[in-house]
Amino acid sequence: MLQHVQLASTPSPPPDNCTTPSELTYQILSCVMIGQFILGLLLNLSVLYIFIFRYKFWKNKSIFLFNIVVADFLLVACLPIKAHHYLNGERHSPNEVVCKIMIFMLFLNRGASIGFLITLSLDRYFNVVHLGRKNFVKVLKNTPQISVVIWLLLLPLTIPTMLRTFECCNSHGRNKETTSSNMIDTFREIVFFIQIIIPFIILVFCTVRIVNRLRKKTVGDQTKLRRAVCVVLSVVFVFSLCFLPCALARAALLFVRIKDKDGAENVAVQVYDSLEVLSYINCLLDPLVYCFCNSGFKNAYINNFCPPFLKEKLLSADFGMGTTTMTTTTTSGGRIVVMKPVNEK
């Protein structure tokens, strides 16, 4: 009888542990991640092939674009492992080393993708709004070594994921043991939100200034302005779809966890994990940014991977940028000669 009372008084484990709160939800998410892995691997391999063997990124000032591809491969490498855990009913790996490495890789991917996308947007902003002035972004773009520096600067922001043991790599709001532990958890969450919120504010600022510049410019060539608008809007689209929903869901999860609302936490965990899986689609959307950012890459990719009946239509389309034109000339022999635009550097 006493043993029965002791068992009954044992508190139930918190819902935010390594087990999935809903088997069906996480099976669906695992299937989505498998699809993301297959498409992401094929797409990014094709992009990498173009950058190295066809476009030669080091000669065309596309170092930052190439680094985004590298960051996407970090994400793609994590997807089958995470899908495997979801299929086995685990939100994260029960192995501490694997769990920390996975979160480290995902933090590094998110930070690198955001960092290089923001740098591209700032480059467009300075080239349009502050045309003719020397700016640090243009200097950085012409210095390949700066990419290494950016990667090294990202490492300190990912170190908190490796500092201490915590349940299922996700303890904030659960661990109330020591002040140092809570400080580490809090710092990790601050890094998560800062790397999304501050870059989004910068993006909105750049977009508004570039659009205003486009509206005020009534004479001269507006091609560069339209291209700049398309670049920053494409980056804003990637942010709005991939990163912002995940950040909002993370904030909601932390709120219900700190308030000890176990029933709501089960729902919040599933919503957060679902939106986190949605954020992984950035490895599929980044090539859209490449095409808007660099018409030379777009032309090289279309020429190598698109079927012949689509090439002419895609090459002649400017996607609202006014960056490409096609001139078709018929010679006396009846042969059609297509004049392609000069690749943008």
TrEMBL record:
TM region(s), chain numbering: 24-52, 64-83, 103-122, 143-163, 190-211, 231-256
InterPro entries, per database record: GPCR_Rhodpsn, GPCR_Rhodpsn_7TM, HCARs
A GO cellular-component term linked to this record: membrane
Main location class: membrane
GO MF term (any one): G protein-coupled receptor activity
Database matches in Gene3D superfamilies: Rhodopsin 7-helix transmembrane proteins (1.20.1070.10)
Pfam families membership: 7tm_1
Localization of this protein: Membrane
Record membrane topology: Multi-pass membrane protein
Keyword rRNA processing part of the UniProt annotation: no
G-protein coupled receptors family 1 profile domain span: 43-290
UniProt keyword terms in alphabetical order: G-protein coupled receptor, Membrane, Receptor, Transducer, Transmembrane, Transmembrane helix
Family to which the UniProt record says this protein belongs: Belongs to the G-protein coupled receptor 1 family.
PANTHER family in alphabetical order: 12-(S)-HYDROXY-5,8,10,14-EICOSATETRAENOIC ACID RECEPTOR (PTHR46048:SF11), HYDROXYCARBOXYLIC ACID RECEPTOR 2 (PTHR46048)
Protein name (record): G-protein coupled receptors family 1 profile domain-containing protein
Native organism: Knipowitschia caucasica
Source lineage: Eukaryota, Metazoa, Chordata, Craniata, Vertebrata
